[in-house]
Amino acid sequence: MIHSRKQFMLYGYYDNESDDDVNSEANARRINNVEQCFGSSGQPLGIPGRVLVGEGVLTKMCRKKPKPRQFFLFNDALVYGNIIIHKKKYNKQHILPLEDVKLDNVADEGNLRNGWKIMSPSKSFIVYAATATEKKEWMAHIRKCVNDILAQRGLRQSTSIDSPVWVPDSEAKTCMHCRKSEFTVVNRRHHCRHCGIVACNPCTGKRWLLPQQSSKPIRVCLTCYQKLSNEASEFSASRKHSVITGGDHPNSSGEDSSEDDDDPARDGMPSADQIAIHDAHFQSYD
Ligand SMILES: [Zn+2]
Ligand SMILES: [Zn+2]
């Protein structure tokens, strides 16, 4: 099987002047194909006016280790999922509306090269491209789409608070809050949903409602709990009524594993998608 040399496949979104029926037909076919690949595990993606700008494999830093994920850049959303069969089957779909997305550069460190942060209120993480060129392409295209959608909708860059990028488990041998508790099989690592540190159970014993991430109160460290409590009391003092109520958020349970797309059952096992790393490339459909 021959893979294209380029990881980031671009579909000619910038040929707007020649935006004819052939283009829109091809676009509809591509979007339908992405939908098919996710099957019942994904949401319908064919929205009027939506264009699939490009797609490719990026290595996403997950809780346990970096893992390849298929990313789809639409003109209004960034969608990604786990690769079951390359170009055929994906699952665990995540959709980030582009108007909420911000990017930030990440410096090269050891083997982790060509990375950048993708930040949004519901999810934030670091991804790595195979080459510096691809990183540049991805970042430029995402930024262009974000700016275009903001301009089109008459919005400014989102000022909402982004969810934290989680510190990978491997970076913390001891609790980053108390600095004492050493992690073992029994003394599990937990992540503060507000600042992203890895901390022990007692140091993350409190819960707080962060509605962008979950409909239920979720785990926060003691420092964040204190900070959020202070902010809330200041807020309610100035407002009289506290407005912290839970809304319906269909796909969040507030449980530890639910907010990460790692498979917790595979702890320490080499996964199939780990082997497929950098196998596929970003391609262009022009
Ligand atoms: Zn601790
Ligand atoms: Zn915290």
From TrEMBL:
One of its GO terms (molecular function) is zinc ion binding. PROSITE patterns: PH_DOMAIN, ZF_FYVE. This is Pleckstrin homology domain-containing family F member 2. Residues 276-286 have a biased composition (Basic and acidic residues). Keywords: Metal-binding, Zinc, Zinc-finger. The keyword Ubl conjugation does not apply. One of its GO terms (cellular component) is early endosome. GO terms for biological process: endosome organization; endosome to lysosome transport. It comes from the Eukaryota. Residues 236-286 are annotated as: Disordered. Residues 51-147 form the PH domain. The keyword ATP-binding does not apply. Pfam families: FYVE, SOS1_NGEF_PH. Residues 169-229 form the FYVE-type domain.
